[in-house]
């Protein structure tokens, strides 16, 4: 099933910078970053990053919560395969775990900042559960 790990610290402590470096989104000014992408059991590590700005997601964006959480499964499906009952179960379970199931048919722009953040977190969870 995987696990969630959080990084905490005071403002300006470089938490976001550390994650961006680990994911290869930015390059270090000097030195190097090494991140082991293979777990002890031999499977590939899946890392999800939800940026702080997710709460400012475009309020006019037309997609519903459930559609965007489903997109967490697209990497396995590819372009032409359809969702199975297993995928729907993953999405439903992910939303129910954070009490967001009742908001599944709301447009992203209708959510509060905290709810948008939860949507981002559990889109990543659906991606991890889908592996």
UniProtKB/TrEMBL annotation:
SUPFAM superfamilies: P-loop containing nucleoside triphosphate hydrolases. InterPro entries: ABC_transporter-like_ATP-bd, Metal_Ion_Import_ABC, P-loop_NTPase. Residues 2-118 form the ABC transporter domain. Keywords: Transport. One of its GO terms (molecular function) is ATP hydrolysis activity. The keyword rRNA-binding does not apply. The keyword Translocase does not apply. It comes from the Bacteria. PANTHER family: HIGH-AFFINITY ZINC UPTAKE SYSTEM ATP-BINDING PROTEIN ZNUC, METAL TRANSPORT SYSTEM ATP-BINDING PROTEIN TM_0124-RELATED. This is ABC transporter domain-containing protein. It comes from Paenibacillus donghaensis.
């Amino acid at each position: 099933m995987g696990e969630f790990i959080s990084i905490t610290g005071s403002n300006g402590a470089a938490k976001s910078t550390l994650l961006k470096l680990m994911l290869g989104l930015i390059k270090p000014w000097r030195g190097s970053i090494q991140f082991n992408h293979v777990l002890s059991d031999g499977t590939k590590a899946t890392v999800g990053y939800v940026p702080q700005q997710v709460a400012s997601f475009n309020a006019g964006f037309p997609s519903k919560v459930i559609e965007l959480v489903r997109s967490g499964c697209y990497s396995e499906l590819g372009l032409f395969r359809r969702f199975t009952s297993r995928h729907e179960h993953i999405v439903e379970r992910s939303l129910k775990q954070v009490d967001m199931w009742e908001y599944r048919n709301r447009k992203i722009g209708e959510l509060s900042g905290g709810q948008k953040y939860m949507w981002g977190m559990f889109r990543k969870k659906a991606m991890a559960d889908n592996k």
